[in-house]
Amino acid sequence: MGGIAGLEHAKGAVLRLFVLCVLFLAGPGLVAAGAEDDPVDRLVAELTAGLSSHFAGDACASPRSLGVWPFDVAQVPVSAIAADQLYSDLVAELVAGAPSCLEIMDGEGIGAVLSYLHRSGALGEAGGNPVAALEAANRAVDIVILPRLFVRGGAVMLSLKAVARDSGRTLAQTAAAALPAERTEVALADTARDLESAVRLAVQGLSGQVHDMNRLVPAGIFFQDTGAQPDFARYFQERVVAGLVAASSNLITGRVLSVLEPEFDLGADLGRSLSPRDLDPLARIAERDGADGLYQLRGTYWRLGDVLDITLTVQGIEGKAGSWQGRLGTAGLGGMALEPTNAGLGDDQSDAGSFAILMTSPRGENPVYHPGEELTVYFRTDRRVWLYCFYIDSGGAVTEVLPNIFLKDFAQGHMLAPYVLHALPDPRRDPFTFRIDDSTLGEERLKCIAATRNVSEELPPALRGQSFDPIPNGIAAEIDTIFDGLANVQLARASVTMTIAPPQ
Q1: Same structural domain for residues 156 and 199?
Q2: Is 10 in contact with 323 (CB distance < 8 Å)?
Q3: Which of helix, strand or coil describes residue 52?
Q4: To pair with 374 at 20 to 30 A between CA atoms, which of 49, 190, 266, 276?
Q5: Is the pLDDT of residue 111 over 50?
Q6: What do you get for the CA distance between the two ends of the chain, in Å?
Q7: How far apart are CA 255 and CA 494, in angstroms?
Q8: How much is the CA Rg of the chain, to the nearest whole Å?
Q9: Smallest Cα–Cα separation from 396: which of 472, 459, 466?
């Protein structure tokens, strides 16, 4: 992640580039020279071969636009410089190996697309789902290439997926390939700090970039892309928040940094039309008390062997932001849990879908709860859908909670009207609650699949909400595949991951 001098600087803007190209998918898949040596070459060849099988024959007579979505540098285990270079190489390989009828949109066109998505609010209102954002903004992109960077076994892995904008279905997908260290800069373990140094540098870096901060909303520090907040995540956030309070307070001027918990109750708004901003804790606080000096702290860390690669951001409601990135050695962390105990969370990486479904809780998108507390999950979608929700407990058992046996007296009980707020459990009709069990610690997830029509009769009996018994393992492992195999329906997915921490 750059040289030693560059480790504690901001990673830079989240969105780097959006490339659109007109791609005629005909003939054999793209095979770049040297594909046997370079993992990016191999992945591009594998992806385009899969795409070609979908668009054979007269594909050249009907050009299809293709967009390559950029890496979110706050959510990947490499530096901004490495992410930019990898993205550029990925696009270059797509262009170099493509048929002669491939055309690339110029820089002005690329900038116009990004500008429009931000100006229209489509990206934010889609919950960060690029496919849904493009659909909502009515941008002429038929296929979106979604690259994913993640860590497995201490190595940085890359995989590619091509998704149809109109349906959200996966058209082609590659296996994951390990990237060499020279591409990802992961071989700099000697630059890792100890805990106290990392906290001090994070506080200095963040407070030095946002001088007007007077209110802070901690939104969580998450392990990789799981949404989980293990022991280390909660402890590191606590230390950084305490450091920011100390650094931002001034006894002479009386300035004090207030820490606000991201908790809100939307029970009174059930059934009312709400905007996506109404489900954003930061936006609600800003609307109530003003936006000046209000920031949200959020972070992600990746485990690379004996090193944690950490990125923290402070984001204001009006776009002002600061960030810090650094490495922390694990040797001095004792028995503190660094990773989720629910090993299946990282494997649940299905398509988000072609339209927006937003899920959150009274404590934010991926909250921390304690035994004995009750959980409510809120939903908002941009079209009428039928919702199928599955609860994954800390032991990995999967139970369908929507539809369920209590909805038999409610016509279309799992149908959600668009734009209005829904809840599960819904106190207006559900005779049950989600109470965190006293014996439960670890991570649990509520995962929901939204369908544009009622598909219950086309599902296996175990997925029709006829029981609260755990779904047999063989069927539970195939839930996404079963839904993806349904015809004449659009799908979207969303989830909330709950970290169950010991009693306070």
Answers
A1: no
A2: yes
A3: helix
A4: 276
A5: no
A6: 37
A7: 40
A8: 23
A9: 472
Q: Are 325 and 311 in contact (CB under 8 A)?
A: yes
Could you list the residue range(s) of the whole structural domain that residue 391 is in?
349-500
Whether 16 contacts 84, CB under 8 Å: yes
| Total of domains in the chain | 3
222 and 322 within one domain: yes
User: What global pTM score does this model have?
Assistant: 0.76
- 212 with 268, same domain? yes
Decide if pLDDT at 224 tops 80.
yes
Listed residue (353, 485, 503, 378) closest to 437, CA to CA: 503
Same domain? 224 vs 90: no
Whole-angstrom Cα distance, residue 228 to residue 484?
26
Position 164 confidence tier, pLDDT thresholds 50, 70, 90 = confident
| Tokens (6 digits) for 413 | 């009980």
395 lies in the same domain as 461: yes
Q: What is the pLDDT of residues 447-478, one digit of tens each?
A: 999 999 999 999 999 999 888 899 999 999 89
Residue type, position 209, single letter: Q
What is the DSSP secondary-structure string of 196-243? HHHHHHHHHHHHTT-TT--EEEEEEEEETTS----HHHHHHHHHHHHH
Same domain, 198 and 170: no
213: its two tokens:
């901060």
**Chain-centroid distance, C-alpha 39:** 24
Which CB contacts under 8 angstroms, 24+ apart, belong to 49-52?
49/172, 50/162, 50/171, 50/172, 50/173, 50/174, 51/25, 51/143, 51/162, 51/171, 51/172, 52/25, 52/26, 52/27, 52/28
State how far the alpha carbon of 9 is from the alpha carbons of 140, 203, 248, 376, in Å.
Answer: 36, 12, 20, 38
Task: Decide which of 331, 358, 379 is a domain's last residue.
Answer: 331
Task: Judge whether 113 and 18 are in contact, CB under 8 Å.
Answer: yes
Amino acid found at 76: V
Residue 31 gets which letter from DSSP?
Answer: -
Task: Examine the domain organization and report whether 42 and 154 are in the same domain.
Answer: yes
d(CA 407, CA 405): 6
Per the CB < 8 A criterion, the answer to whether 142 and 64 are in contact is yes
Q: Which two tokens stand for residue 474?
A: 């063989």
Q: Helix or strand or coil: residue 58?
A: coil
Quick check: is 339 in a domain?
A: no
For residue 247, what is the enclosing H or E element?
helix 231-248
Residue 134 in contact with residue 73, Cβ under 8 Å? no
Region 344-365: mean pLDDT is 77
Are both 275 and 210 inside the same structural domain?
A: yes
Domain final residue pick, 154, 184, 214: 184
Token pair of 491 as six digits: 């799908």
What's the pLDDT tens digit per position in 371-394? 989 999 999 998 999 999 999 988
Question: Regarding beta strands 294-304 and 215-223, do their DSSP bridges make them parallel or antiparallel, or are they unpaired?
Answer: parallel
